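Action item from last week, closing it out:
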Amino acid sequence: MLTARDVQGKIITIPENIPKERLVEWQTNQYYCPCCTAELILKAGQIKIPHFAHKKTSACTASSEPESEYHLLGKRKLFQWFVNNHIEPEMEPYLPEIRKRPDILIYYKEQSYAIEFQCSPISEEVFLSRTKSYQGAGIKPIWILAEKRIKRKKTRKYSLSAFQWLFAMNTVQSPMIFTFCPDKQKLYMLEPLTPFSPRTTFSQLAVLPLSNTLPQILFSTNKTWKFHFTEEWRAQRKSWAIHSVKTAKQSNPFFNGLYKNGLSPAWIPSEIGLPVEGMVMIETSAVEWQGWIFMDCLQNKKIGSRIYRSQIYHSFQRRISNGQIRLRTLPMISAKNPFLAVDAYLTLLVKLEILEFGGKGIYLIKNKLNLPTSSVEYVQLESSIYSKLSEMILL
């Protein structure tokens, strides 16, 4: 930690660099934890960043996991960033009402924010507990992930673990994750997060040097859904089909459902597995949850048949209840209605002239989804669908 109480009870923050002539003075003073009042020791060497630590293994309720040099440096750089932009931060303040100690606390436009720079994995339980504690106290948490933890697979394709998805913030229309590299003094913004599957997501990367970036970027809210990754998504959808043919097992409920409905993973209609607004809330891949909607509600309907939105909701909820559709845990995104993605998918099917909206939650089957009978036909149908999708996105 970088803050402590001195013998007079005053909160002090240790300097980033202690001059040699003052080091003995700092080391001979006594320091105490602002949270548990236990005595602390000052660790300051030639290499390590000066910091305080509990003398023994601590049972301090506000003490977090051991801090790395990277973490200590990151807190300092972020703290100074707020100071430089005239936002008064508090370093490691102890909040007795919730028994938590965020890395940094700021107050901006009548709202308190807890800034947490996370460099090492912690359990989902701990993450959610801290987040809910802040939210319950009226404090908005902003979790910033260490940049070195992000795994980029291609230019705009990333692999995010379930733990990293917890960092998603903003809105369901425009979810984002902030990462930070204290060595480079750069903030990075992955936005909008557009998940294809539980781990694979597409996103644009904005590189934001602290020297010319305002902290207000952390508080901005974009509620407009935009999709920038048509060709990347299309390639991933093709890859999924090829891979699934080799690995599909009938013991998997989804592939078992495909076989029972006479569908091949390689030739699933291209209208299944399309990007739509709100799908960040659904952990299950778009191919699967849209495939369930097709098999449960659309496949056996004749042209002109009615289908009620409530029926689709009921079927979707049933798949959630039995674990065949899984939702993401997104503690920093509010208004998490999984049916938003279902509604967006139905709207897309209307635009693709598969469905026709009949008003009052009623849809009519306008055209059947085309089931290809050959690889040549599949290529033609797939090309047609993505051509239409590109035109819609450009509108």
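Closing note: The chain has a mean pLDDT of 89.
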